[in-house]
Predict the structure of FeMo cofactor biosynthesis protein NifB.
Amino acid sequence: QGKEIPYDPETLRRIRDHPCFSEKACHKSGRAHLAVAPKCNIQCNYCVRDFDCVNESRPGVASEVLSPEQGLARVREILDKFPYVKVIGIAGPGEPLANPETLETMRLIHENHPHLILCISTNGLLLPDVIDELIRYDAYNLTVTLNAVDPEIGAQIYSHVTYKGKKYVGVEGAKLLLEQQLKGIQMAVERKMIVKINTVYIPGINDEHIPEIAKVVGAMGVFNFNIIPLIPQYKFADITPPTPAMKRAMHDRCAPYVKQMKHCQRCRADAVGKLGQDVQSSLSSPCAGEKE
Ligand code: SF4
Ligand code: SF4
């Protein structure tokens, strides 16, 4: 199952206290997502942008977007009310790294609450470009959504990719995205980040390819692998999603290559609490009074 990595005590803490990296942590430790990142730099064919980024979150009512300062205030409130929250993550509602507010939020939290575990979820396009800033803020828990390691398959999943102001489509766009993803994952492993790969299971598009993805990332030294069943919408609205039995069978096919995460809850981009026991509705709304 991937490469054996000797973990230092701090890395072990970031694994053991994070409910998405350690199933045992689910019962004692919570996570909070701060929805500070509305924009996205790619278009996945399964995403309707009125909702949260479905690479990490389940679609629902779009999360209320917070400014970095509002995010910090929310962290204070969360720690006050729910002291078992040990992880602060940014997972949307768009692509975290496409929004400068994400890094500013991380900086504020790191300076004010250095004991918290910082976590980020990304499509990987900008990962090599900003990875050292993540390290500066001790954000060592990383999720990259990787749906293909073959640009021909990627081209069926992504409509376009926008990088440094230029829009790329088809195989060219998928190839650029893949190069950045693999480079970013490699850099993350070298920096001792704890890397989770999310792969959306899209029957008829990447299903036969998923074990190959697991093989590639397992050999690179990622920590675990999370298979997310497609939620059929937008260009993939007519695809029937995989059944739980198909998902279990896919985990079995991928398990020889990399540790499998099987307890993902498809949280919202503003989820707070223990996995499956969200409490965000009991927090105050920082935007109350600002709406028309
Ligand atoms: Fe949607 Fe997330 Fe894909 Fe962007 S990366 S298009 S927000 S699913
Ligand atoms: Fe963890 Fe899955 Fe929720 Fe992300 S969506 S915080 S991986 S349980």
